Amino acid sequence: MNNIWGDMAQYDPVTWNWIIAIYLFMAGLSAGSILIGIGLRWYSSDEDKKSGKESAILKAAAIISPIAISLGLACLVLDLTKPFHFWLILINYNFESVMALGVLALLAYTPLGIAYALIVLRDELAKCKLGFLLPVAQMLLPFRKAIEVLLFILAIGVGAYTGFLISAMNAYPMLNTAVLPALFLVSGLSAGAAANLVVALLMFNVDSHDKELSKMHGLELPVMATEIMFLFMLFCALYFKGGAAALALASLTTGVWASVFWIGVVGIGFGIPLLSMLMPASTRHTKTAMIVVACSGLTGVLALRHFIIYAGQSYIY
């Protein structure tokens, strides 16, 4: 070892920290919630659509989506070395950069999410101190279908973009994999469904046997199974790459991030929702049980983002 330069142990290998993990979580949550909300609306009966009454799930998604993405972007700006210069990335674009393409998507997605929230929550605007926004909501109402389609497409892009952003870090074998965008999109759907359920139950006092809630419950197992499959594919890809990539699998058995994975992701995120399916229907469909299961799902996705960010940066090619 050259004592002039010192030991590599003195350097922190983590470039992206918990603030970025929160941003990735919030972006996935925002995209997942609105994808679930709009998707359920499109597949609802014609009678429900013609009634003009918005479902509690869609209202919840309309609240969560713009708030979550705004909080996520605030985290992203705070992480910058010069946070007050963030506007420079809005006027300088390199279209070969994943981050630049993501900024463009977010630049369209965020205002569209706010506009859609005004449309969906127009009846609630009149009941609160935001009644002055009602004329704006009425003006946007004729464009609802176009906004919905664009927002749905952009939400898919935002949900997957966070995975593409991380996978562009070529020096880290766990991060530099094509599975991450799909994993982040699916886990975002899981978080979005859970958050929609909590907000619908707490803010809109929806019945636990509501038709829309039942439809969303039907998505839980397929989404969770897909998420587990993508995680399995990620670890298989590392194993078969060999070398430094295979060494990254040590993150599953050693260190604090192994505990985060097995306790946070597997135990809380997957274990509690799966065990809840073994409970009697009368217990499983109570408001308290549904909120506990939803919160465990959100905890699992948050733990997954932290595991990927920290464990992923701990192993270098």
Order of SSEs: HHHHHHHHHHHHHH
Radius of gyration: 21 Å
Q: CATH superfamily membership, which one? A: Formate dehydrogenase/DMSO reductase domain
Q: What is the general shape?
A: globular
Please name the CATH topology. Answer: Formate dehydrogenase/DMSO reductase fold
Q: How many domain units?
A: 1
Annotation field: number of helices: 14
Return the average pLDDT rounded to an integer: 85
CATH class: Mainly Alpha
Poorly predicted parts: 1-11
What's the total number of strands? 0
* CATH architecture grouping: Up-down Bundle
Can you offer a commentary on this structure?
It is built from 14 helices and no strands. The protein is mainly alpha-helical and 317 residues long. The chain has a single domain, classed as Up-down Bundle (Formate dehydrogenase/DMSO reductase fold), CATH 1.20.1630. α1 packs across α9, α5 (98-120) packs across α7 and α8 packs across α9. The longest helix is centred in the last third of the chain and has 31 residues, at 211-241. The radius of gyration is 21 Å and the shape is globular.
What is the gist of this entry?
This protein has 317 residues and is mostly helical.
Primary descriptors:
317 residues, Formate dehydrogenase/DMSO reductase fold, 0% strand, globular, 72% helix, mainly alpha, 14 helices, disordered N terminus
